[in-house]
Amino acid sequence: QVQLVESGGGLVQRGGSLRLSCAASGFAFSDYALTWYRQAPGQEREPIATISVTGGTTNYADSVKGRFTISRDNARKTVYLQMNDLKPEDTAVYYCGWRSYRGQGTQVTVSS
């Protein structure tokens, strides 16, 4: 059974930082690329960061490029999202994803 469990969200002021984690189980974690998504109120879910199997290749949405960093620890079956210089427009529920699977999400709220 595939499980993806996100954590690390919270309330932070503009310019602050958060580190999200996603613990995975139920599939061969180290064999697959993984993606972080987010969904803001009233908007569709969008992919924001993807990481390759070894972590050697990463891709970012323009809206987060230069501020967010995706990484992974295959031994711990965990993918991370380091978010710096947060802005109010980053407020959303953040999810990690593999194929059609998503976790329950973690709320990130950035106050101005």
In words, what does this structure look like?
- This protein has no helices and eleven strands.
- It starts with a strand and ends with a strand.
- A hairpin with a 6-residue loop joins β4 and β5.
- It is mainly beta.
- The strands form two sheets. Strands 2, 4, 5, 6, 9, 10 and 11 form a seven-stranded mixed β-sheet that branches. Strands 1-3-8-7 form a four-stranded antiparallel β-sheet, with no helix packed on it.
The rounded distance between the terminal residues' Cα atoms is: 40 Å
- Global structural class: mainly beta
**Sheet with most strands:** 7 strands, mixed
Helix % is under 10%
Which H/E pattern describes the elements? EEEEEEEEEEE
Mean pLDDT: 97
What's the topology here?
Layout: E1 3-7, E2 10-13, E3 18-25, E4 34-39, E5 46-51, E6 58-60, E7 68-73, E8 78-83, E9 92-98, E10 101-102, E11 106-111
Parallel strand pairs: 2-11
Antiparallel strand pairs: 1-3, 3-8, 4-5, 4-9, 5-6, 7-8, 9-10, 9-11
Give a brief rundown of this model.
The chain is mostly beta strands. Helix content is 0%, strand content 53%.
Salient structural properties:
4-stranded antiparallel beta sheet, globular, 11 strands, 7-stranded mixed beta sheet, single chain, mainly beta, 112 residues
